[in-house]
């Protein structure tokens, strides 16, 4: 039996009921999988319906756990056979020990966090490697939209200014400076526009940035 701890409750998923077939993952999720060593321990923050962890369990044989707050998403993740802890990320990762995981993932959630520095520091505490992705506010059409007097709206940032969950938008340079300030060593970078990977003029031409970083020396063996 698969089990999930959610706010003190253990949710049980009968074997064989998790979804057996999945649509092809997004290109950024494929890159995340490439950056994760088979058989490693992975924590997925804001795991939503558990798609990424389910994919990693099937293709990379990871030992995974997710953190998610939304009730419906937790149930969907459990149905996929993913272990989930129902927890608000803004409250931190105190449930987890230092270096309990090999890799911790925060996919397209960083921009909605109130305490950006704190969550990055906590990621570096609980795992040797961290992977984050976020919309690149430096994408050149964004500047054109602002020059016309409007906040940008597109496939990567589909919200209007008054209902967006994105509160801390940044560019690639902004994130790299914060990572240096927190002593996080960036080991890999991939940028995308839709289903295409962007490999030159990334700061201007990409809509989504994906970084892999290593925690500061002394945080891991």
Radius of gyration: 17 Å
Name the CATH homologous superfamily: Vaccinia Virus protein VP39
Topology pattern, helix = H, strand = E: EEHEHEHEEHEHHEEHE
Low-confidence stretches: 1-21
Give the beta-strand count.
10
The helix fraction, in percent, is 25-40%
SS class:
alpha/beta
The CATH C-level name is Alpha Beta
How much strand?
25-35%
How far is the first residue's CA from the last residue's CA? 34 Å
CATH topology: Rossmann fold
Whole-number total of structural domains? 1
Short descriptors:
globular, Rossmann fold, 7 helices, 221 residues, two-stranded antiparallel ribbon, 27% helix
Account of the 3D structure:
By secondary structure, the chain is of the alpha/beta class. It has one domain (2-214): 3-Layer(aba) Sandwich (Rossmann fold). The chain has 7 helices and 10 strands. An 8-stranded mixed sheet has the order 5-4-3-6-7-10-8-9, with helices on both faces. β4 (63-68), α3 and β5 (84-86) form a beta-alpha-beta unit. The chain is globular, with a radius of gyration of 17 Å. Residues 1-21 have low confidence and may be disordered.
Summarize the structure.
The chain is 27% helix and 27% strand. The protein has 221 residues and is of the alpha/beta class.
């Amino acid at each position: 039996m698969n089990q999930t701890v959610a706010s003190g409750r253990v949710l049980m998923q009968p074997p064989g009921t998790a979804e057996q077939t999945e649509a092809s993952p997004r290109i950024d999720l494929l890159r995340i999988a490439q950056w994760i060593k088979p058989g490693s321990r992975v924590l997925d923050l804001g795991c939503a319906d558990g798609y990424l962890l389910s994919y990693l369990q099937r293709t990379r044989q990871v030992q995974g756990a997710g953190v998610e707050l939304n009730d419906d998403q937790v149930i969907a993740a459990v149905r996929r056979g993913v272990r989930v802890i129902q927890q608000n990320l803004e409250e931190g990762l105190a449930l987890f020990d230092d270096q309990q995981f090999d890799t911790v993932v925060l996919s397209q959630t960083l921009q909605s966090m109130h305490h950006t520095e704190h969550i990055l520091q906590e990621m570096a505490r609980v795992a040797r490697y961290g992977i984050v992705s976020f919309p690149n506010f430096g994408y050149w059409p964004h500047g054109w939209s602002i020059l016309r007097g409007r906040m940008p709206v597109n496939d990567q940032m589909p919200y209007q200014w008054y209902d967006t969950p994105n509160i801390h938008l940044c560019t690639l340079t902004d994130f790299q400076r914060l990572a240096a300030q927190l002593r996080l060593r960036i080991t890999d970078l991939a940028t995308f526009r839709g289903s295409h990977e962007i490999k030159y003029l990334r700061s201007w031409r990409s809509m989504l940035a994906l970084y892999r970083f290593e925690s500061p020396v002394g945080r891991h063996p």
